[in-house]
Specification:
The chain is an alpha/beta fold. The protein has helices at about 1-50, 70-85, 95-100, 100-105, 120-125, 130-145, 155-160, 180-190, 200-215, 240-250, 270-275, 300-315, 325-335; strands at about 55-65, 90-95, 145-150, 170, 190-195, 220-225, 255-260, 280.
């Protein structure tokens, strides 16, 4: 009796094991077929996809690298527009008395060798252009077929530059929590508002975007991944922030860009492969000129090479339009054993 029970249990166990083995094989077979179908589906979609490869919009940030000299500023516009072939140039606008306290204005420059005035306030004033000069620079940009823009650091400057009605106005990382200024621009300026996210926490970033959503201007907002440093070592460039911003805000804001403060252009190929809509780099005529930005800026030859490289990279950022490309057909006949 005991042997019969043991034998019965053994065969039941054997059947269960065989059944589980059968189910496992069935599942693996179905799983393989499903994976195969998904791969084919994805492949077909890729082949049918329109070429998304596009050249990044390139901005040469002149900033204050003109040394406060409008003739140098115009020369920089000529070079970036006609030699480097950038899409836009960007300057900066500050109302020094609004931006600095009396104590900050009268304090010495933290790096005296970079100072253009005996106090920090006078240093900043020496590098400022008036609204009329910005208007003159904007007209000069039109003459050279390049877009004019400016970063605004305070509400007064925002109102002044907005009166010129440029295509876009930039908010620097240092001023992106000036919600009074952001709200005024959203309510009174109709162009694109570009905003850098250097030295900004994730919660602050969310507050900024929420403001634009609340004011129905998020579709005019362009966010830039950025690390605030002059210059920034490659280990702190954090270019994958582009992917994070695209994933989090890609369907919410208008575009995602990258504002780079690193040295040289060897990193920009990797940046371009992440497909930001805009790449912004500082521009100078001499890396040894006095000032903190010059060291993190590109020279004319570098900026020109960057634009050329980005154009070439854009041509490669696509899927194969056919399974066998025309360039491969001759090689397939010649080399492939079928």
């Amino acid at each position: 009796m005991r042997k019969k029970i043991i034998v019965t249990i053994y065969f039941k166990f054997l059947n269960i094991t065989k059944g589980m083995s059968y189910l496992k094989n069935l599942f693996e077979n179905v799983s393989f077929k499903l994976k195969h179908r998904l791969v084919n589906f994805y492949k077909e979609r890729c082949l049918k996809m329109e070429n998304n490869g596009r050249k990044c919009y390139v901005v040469a940030e002149i900033g204050c690298n003109h040394l406060g000299n409008i003739d140098i500023a115009k020369r920089m516009i000529e070079i970036t527009a006609n030699y480097c072939k950038v899409d836009a140039v960007k300057f900066q606008k500050r109302c020094i008395r609004e931006l600095l306290s009396e104590e900050q204005y009268n304090a010495p420059h933290p790096h005296p060798k970079n100072a253009y005035g005996e106090t920090y306030g006078k240093h900043r004033e020496a590098l400022e252009f008036s609204l009329e000069q910005h208007k003159e620079l904007m007209e000069y940009c039109k003459k050279n077929h390049v877009v004019y823009s400016a970063s605004v650091w305070d509400l007064t400057s925002a109102k002044e530059i907005a009166s010129l009605q440029p295509e876009y106005i930039k908010i620097p990382s240092a001023s992106n929590l000036n919600f009074k200024m952001l709200q005024w621009l959203c309510e009174n300026y109709l162009g694109e508002i570009h905003l850098s996210l250097g030295m900004t926490t994730l919660s602050e970033e969310e507050r900024i975007v929420e403001l634009f959503i609340d004011l129905h201007r998020n579709k005019d907002l362009v966010l830039y991944a950025c690390t605030s440093g002059y210059p920034v070592p490659y280990s702190d460039a954090c270019i994958l922030e582009i992917k994070r911003l695209k994933y989090k805000y890609g369907g919410i804001v208008k575009k995602i860009g990258y504002s780079g403060h690193h040295i040289g252009i060897s990193l920009d190929g990797a940046i371009a492969a992440l497909e930001p809509d805009i790449i912004e780099r500082h521009f100078t005529l001499n890396n040894d000129w006095k000032g903190t930005d010059h060291k993190a800026s590109l020279l004319p030859e570098q900026m020109k090479e960057l634009v050329i490289n980005l154009e070439l990279i854009s041509q490669s950022l696509k899927y194969k339009e056919k399974e066998i490309l025309p360039i491969e057909e001759v090689q397939r006949i010649k080399l492939k054993n079928i």
